[in-house]
């Protein structure tokens, strides 16, 4: 008899295949006294070399398949393997205490992991996870234990795991891995975002899938409804095969919309844009018919290196995107570093709560040399396309005014140097701090546009870390409080003759799209793979009809009530 487990639909689609349980290898470390430390150090050095070779291959594969930003984690892992503090400590322990390499590695990495986990800085806590991942890889080589690696899969399977690490997801071969289900995670977790970018069905947050399934069992993943069916009956298999065929047909229909305008049933136009991290992401953007880039995250130019990028390096990256978009709007966000993204070479201070600390525009206004270099590169690139500059993490009008003043100063310098700069650059801001959303009317008098960053706006408004499983239930995009803030921003923009976009995950969410349309959102920026489904959905929505029902929606009491209302009124 079949068994159904429910979770969170993280990536739409249907997959039917055998289960492949991805389990951590058993790495039991036994402390032994040795006679030849030189030989033991050679064993350790060999294990490090093998691990490096594996990670370099994974990094190359990840860059090719997923883009530089997704491959960044492996550069961090390689740095761990090259860290003299770790390597030399292990060798010293082998030499001085005459112990085996496994034991020395386990002790030294354990010390570093404990040290990092006890730090208040979230970025440093994440380094503990990097060291744990690297230790597992090196120990496996020392113990001659084979990893249950996704790269070894040579038949069609559905991966079942507690969670998928960055190393795991980067090795997924879409020809064989038809989908995955995990015990933990949510729609904004790493594995969920990766699944959507790879376009494979996924269900996360099932809590117990690894306990309920055995290797080789036939499994059905329904990433649309968020369910997993274990050992389905023949009639259930037939039912889901029909559902899969229907989904494939739906994707073929979506593909016909690549060059079509984004408009509603009653002929109202909106703009569907894409979020990108590097120029390499442009292929997906163009293939999915995006009408603009709504968010170019520039911080990836600054990461995984030992010094700041030069003005010319930045200029080339911005110019490439602007040229390839052939005059379509490109919103480039200035450096948004800090919080969970740190630059080791900047030596930023440790903070108790870095997400609410010294980051983004706050850092840039203080470190003006860094900021001015980026602004010069952006201004130079503006001559090659339709650039719109966006400042992140703006909380006060004074911050926006300071940032714009510095931008104008750099523009004047370039003009004085006879360097070509566009005279039609729009300058806007992300609205991700509740104070800015509340003060939207005042901001709208001075900005050219707003882009609502819902990922942060939701967690700041609800006082709930979206990556914390204990409070993830409070990450509620459809909460009437969030919708009221979004409405306030859009209305303020329109009252002042400006446009309003959204670049958070909410912009591509099928439940949110009718609400955002009714609220009057002008630009929806999302993952490239969400653009065609969104364009198709808009064709079936009457903007005037949706807008007429919005007052009723805003009077509802809860996120759940809003979701039910949308399902009942705006879905066919």
Features:
572 residues; alpha/beta; Glucose Oxidase, domain 1; Enzyme I, Chain A, domain 2; TIM Barrel; 3 domains; 8-stranded mixed sheet; 8-stranded parallel barrel; 22 helices; globular
* CATH architecture tag of the largest domain: Alpha-Beta Barrel
Give the overall form.
globular
Number of helical segments with 4 or more residues:
22
* Superfamily (CATH H level) name of the largest domain: Phosphoenolpyruvate-binding domains
CATH class of the largest domain: Alpha Beta
Biggest sheet strand line-up: 1-8-7-3-4-5-6-2
Helix content: 40-55%
- Beta-strand percent range: 5-15%
Question: Helix/strand/pairing class, anyone?
Answer: alpha/beta
Radius of gyration: 25 Å
CATH topology of the largest domain: TIM Barrel
Could you tell me the mean pLDDT?
89
Number of beta-strand segments: 16
Structure description:
The chain folds into three domains: 3-23 and 149-236, 3-Layer(bba) Sandwich (Glucose Oxidase, domain 1), CATH 3.50.30.10; 37-142, Enzyme I, Chain A, domain 2 (Orthogonal Bundle), CATH 1.10.274; 264-570, TIM Barrel (Alpha-Beta Barrel), CATH 3.20.20.60. The protein is 48% helix and 14% strand. It has 22 helices and 16 strands. The strands form two sheets. An eight-stranded mixed beta sheet has the order 1-8-7-3-4-5-6-2. It has an eight-stranded parallel β-barrel with strand order 9-10-11-12-13-14-15-16, surrounded by four helices. The two termini are 33 Å apart. The model has no long low-confidence stretch (mean pLDDT 89).
Topology:
Elements: E1 3-6, E2 8-11, E3 14-21, H1 37-66, H2 68-81, H3 84-97, H4 101-117, H5 122-142, E4 157-161, H6 166-170, E5 177-182, H7 190-198, E6 202-204, H8 209-212, E7 218-222, E8 227-230, H9 234-255, E9 271-276, H10 282-287, E10 292-297, H11 311-324, E11 329-333, H12 360-366, H13 368-381, E12 386-391, H14 397-416, E13 426-431, H15 434-438, H16 440-444, E14 449-452, H17 454-462, H18 480-495, E15 499-502, H19 512-519, E16 523-526, H20 531-538, H21 543-554, H22 559-570
Parallel strand pairs: 3-4, 4-5, 5-6, 9-10, 9-16, 10-11, 11-12, 12-13, 13-14, 14-15, 15-16
Antiparallel strand pairs: 1-8, 2-6, 3-7, 7-8
Helix pairs in contact: 1-2, 1-5, 2-5, 3-4, 4-5, 11-13, 12-13, 13-14, 19-21
């Amino acid at each position: 008899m079949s068994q159904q487990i429910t979770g969170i639909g993280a990536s739409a689609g249907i997959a039917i295949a055998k289960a492949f349980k991805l389990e951590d290898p058993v790495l039991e470390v036994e402390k032994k006294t040795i006679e030849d430390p030189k030989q033991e150090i050679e064993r350790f050095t060999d294990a490090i070399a093998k691990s490096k070779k594996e990670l370099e291959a994974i990094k190359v594969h990840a860059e090719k398949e997923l883009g530089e930003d997704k491959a960044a984690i492996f550069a961090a892992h390689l740095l761990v393997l090259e860290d003299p503090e770790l390597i030399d400590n292990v060798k010293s322990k082998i030499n001085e205490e005459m112990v085996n390499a496994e034991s020395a590695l386990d002790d030294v990495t354990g010390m570093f992991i404990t040290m990092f986990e006890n730090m208040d800085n979230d970025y440093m806590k994440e380094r503990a996870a990097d060291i744990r991942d690297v230790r597992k890889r090196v120990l496996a080589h020392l113990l001659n234990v084979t990893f249950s690696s996704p790269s070894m899969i040579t038949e069609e399977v559905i991966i079942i795991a507690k969670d998928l690490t960055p190393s795991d997801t980067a090795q997924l071969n879409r020809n064989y891995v038809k989908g995955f289900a995990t015990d933990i995670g949510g729609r904004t977790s790493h594995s969920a975002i990766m699944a959507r970018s790879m376009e494979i069905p996924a269900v996360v947050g099932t809590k117990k899938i690894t306990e309920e399934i055995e290797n080789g069992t036939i499994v059905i993943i329904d990433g649309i409804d968020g369910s997993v069916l274990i050992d389905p009956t023949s009639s259930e298999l037939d039912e889901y095969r029909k559902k899969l065929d229907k989904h494939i047909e739906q994707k073929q229909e979506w593909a016909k919309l690549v060059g079509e305008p984004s408009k509603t049933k009653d002929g109202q136009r909106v703009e569907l844009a894409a979020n990108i991290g590097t120029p390499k992401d442009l292929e997906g953007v163009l293939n999915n018919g995006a009408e603009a880039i709504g968010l170019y995250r520039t911080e990836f130019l600054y990461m995984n290196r030992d010094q700041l990028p030069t003005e010319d390096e930045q200029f080339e990256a911005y110019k490439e995107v602007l040229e390839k978009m052939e005059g379509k709007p490109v919103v480039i966000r200035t450096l948004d570093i800090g919080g969970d993204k740190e630059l080791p070479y900047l030596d930023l201070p440790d903070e108790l709560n870095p997400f609410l600390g010294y980051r983004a525009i706050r850092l840039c206004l203080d470190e003006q040399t860094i900021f001015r270099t980026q602004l010069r590169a952006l201004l130079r690139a503006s001559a090659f396309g339709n650039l719109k500059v966006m400042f992140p993490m703006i909380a006060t009008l004074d911050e926006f005014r300071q940032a714009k003043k510095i931008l104008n100063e750099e523009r004047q310098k370039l003009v004085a140097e006879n360097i070509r700069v566009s005279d039609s650059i729009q300058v806007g801001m992300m609205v991700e701090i509740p104070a800015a959303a509340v003060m939207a009317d005042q901001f709208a008098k001075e900005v050219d546009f707003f882009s609502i960053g819902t990922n942060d706006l939701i967690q700041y408004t609800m006082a709930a870390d979206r990556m914390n499983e204990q409070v993830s239930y409070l990450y509620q995009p459809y909460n009437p409080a969030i919708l009221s803030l979004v409405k306030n921003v859009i209305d303020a923009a329109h009252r002042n003759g400006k446009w309003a976009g959204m670049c958070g995950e909410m912009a591509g969410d099928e439940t949110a799209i009718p609400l955002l349309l009714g609220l009057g959102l002008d630009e929806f920026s999302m993952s490239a793979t969400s653009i065609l489904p969104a364009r198709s959905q808009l064709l079936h929505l009457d903007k005037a009809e949706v807008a007429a029902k919005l007052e009723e929606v805003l009077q509802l009491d809860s996120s759940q009530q809003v979701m039910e209302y949308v399902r009942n009124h705006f879905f066919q």
